[in-house]
Amino acid sequence: MTTPESFLLTGKCAFVTGAGRGIGRSCAIGLAEAGADVAVVDTDSAAAAGTAEAIRALGRKSLAISADVTSSAAVDKMVSEIVGTWGRLDIAFNNAGICINAPAEAMTDDQWLKVIDVDLNSVFYCARAAGRAMISAGKGGRIINTASMSGFIANRPQPQCAYNAAKAAVIQLTRSLATEWAPHGITVNSISPGYTATEMTLRAKQWHADWLRDSPMKRMAQPDEIRGAVVFLASPAASFVSGHDLVVDGGFSCW
Predict the structure, then answer these.
(1) 14, 17, 170, 186: which could join 96 in a potential S-S bond, CB 3.0 to 4.6 Å?
(2) Around 233, how many Cα atoms within 13 Å sit in the side-chain half-sphere?
(3) pLDDT digits (tens, 9 = 90+) for 194-211
(4) Catalytic residue flag (residue 195)
(5) What contacts 177, CB < 8 A, 6 or more positions away?
(6) What average pLDDT score do residues 149-159 get?
(7) Tell me: the pLDDT tens digits for 11-23?
(8) What is each CA distance from 173 to 60, 75, 127, 145, 166, in whole angstroms?
(9) What are the extents of the domains in the chain?
(10) Is there a contact between 19 and 95 (Cβ–Cβ < 8 Å)?
């Protein structure tokens, strides 16, 4: 039977990448509010420290870790630090991401590879490192990846083929890892947010009118509106949910 306690994360240890701001920061705080200790990972050390301080103010433990998640060695070191400090890793939220808007015919190799590196390769590196730690501990775990509605629609009017391709791959990677690691008691899911009012999207003012026109709710999400999906997928309430992409787009992809 599912009870309110089924959504609590008391005694769990998590990490969140890209947690210095935006969706990552909000969800890191949400996991802490549900009872988890949370390692905050970001390339911006000051932003990571700010999120970690907010978590500690809730009475939870937190580590602020500056790491380049596009480096598998850095990711492995990050997970080793977390496990070495807290003795466990129960939840991994692989959230770091970027978007480069460029027409496909004008996109450079460097632009393409940078997006794929951050939005896809880092998700695999972080999931692999977390999976190894969880398998070794033998106590199961929860892995959540940030995909996007862009993984199954072609956004307009902005050109972003690299982002769309990477996010589609994250959804399929999630399904693949879910099947491989199910025997170890590890669930792997993804979330697919729609347009969310983060620094990245708020800068793109030239496209806001188009996005709101195409949205049934006529607005963007706030970062705090994404955290419930992540807390659910991390919780005991989602014990039989794996290989699923949870869309949080305000109905945008219905049209």
Answers:
(1) 17
(2) 31
(3) 999 999 999 999 999 999
(4) no
(5) 127, 131, 143, 188
(6) 98
(7) 999 999 999 999 9
(8) 31, 18, 10, 9, 10
(9) 9-246
(10) yes
Using CA atoms, how far apart are residues 220 and 69, in angstroms rounded to an integer? 28
**Token pair for 56:** 């500690």
Q: For domain 9-246, is the CATH number 3.40.50.720?
A: yes
- Rounded to whole angstroms, the Cα distance separating 135 from 140 reads 7
* Alpha-carbon dihedral sign for residues 124, 69, 27, 254: negative
- Answer yes or no: are the C-beta atoms of 13 and 34 closer than 8 Å: no
Is residue 41 left, alpha or beta, with left meaning phi > 0 and alpha meaning psi from -120 to 50?
Answer: beta
- Edge-to-edge strands, sheet with 245-248: 62-66, 37-42, 13-17, 91-94, 141-146, 186-193, 245-248
Output 31-35 pairs: Cβ under 8 A, ≥24 positions apart: 31/91, 31/93, 31/227, 31/230, 31/231, 31/234, 32/58, 32/60, 32/62, 33/58, 33/231, 34/7, 34/8, 34/9, 34/10, 34/231, 34/234, 34/235, 35/8, 35/9, 35/10, 35/11, 35/60
Which of the following is catalytic: 125, 163, 211, 252? 163
pTM (predicted TM-score): 0.97
- Say which amino acid occupies 88: R
